[in-house]
Amino acid sequence: MTAELNRRGFDHAKKLVAAGEVVLDDRDAWSEHRPTAAQENEFIDKHGIDEYARWHLGLDPSHGEEAKARYKFPYGDFTAVHRCGVLSAEVRAAQQNYTDIEVAAAHLHGMLDSKR
User: Fold this and answer.
1) Over the stretch 18-43, which tens digit does the pLDDT of each residue have?
2) Distance (Å, rounded) from C-alpha 70 to C-alpha 114?
3) Any idea what DSSP says for residue 76?
4) Cα separation of 74 and 19, whole Å?
5) For the CA atoms of the chain, what is the radius of gyration?
6) Pick from 4, 23, 46, 85: CA 20 to 30 A from residue 78's CA?
């Protein structure tokens, strides 16, 4: 997988954090808070793939714009930015050497921690 920063997703996350649309949870909570595949599909059916894309920090350009697989590094539950999702994205991006995504997630991490 090759991933690059999804600028629209990053900008959307910054706006949500600035507006206070956040959940200040711990990193280990992401497995419980992350949307299921069924929830993702329902969201896409209701709101479209463009809106779905805004909830991800990364994208894989080897997949078409209409493919769910194109969008990587989710950070929220379609209503709020979750600190646990941002931390998970930050760690995974660092492990996979996606520096631009790691830096974006670290920026969001700092924004979220300033709200604690």
Assistant:
1) 999 999 998 889 999 999 999 999 99
2) 31
3) B
4) 19
5) 13
6) 4
Q: Are strands 81-82 and 22-23 parallel, antiparallel or unpaired?
A: parallel
Q: What is the pLDDT of residues 69-78, one digit of tens each?
A: 999 999 999 9
Q: Whose structure tokens read 């078409």?
A: 64
Rounded CA-CA distance 44/68 in Å is: 9
Amino acid at site 82: H
Closest to 91 in 3D by CA, of 42, 57, 53, 66: 57
Structure tokens that stand for 110 in this block = 């700092």
Q: Considering the entire predicted model, what is its pTM? A: 0.95
Using DSSP's 3-state secondary structure scheme, residue 100 falls into: helix
Beta carbons of 75 and 55 less than 8 angstroms apart: yes
Beta bridge partners of 81: 22, 76
Q: Which residue has the tokens 């991933």?
A: 3
Residue with tokens 């300033």: 114
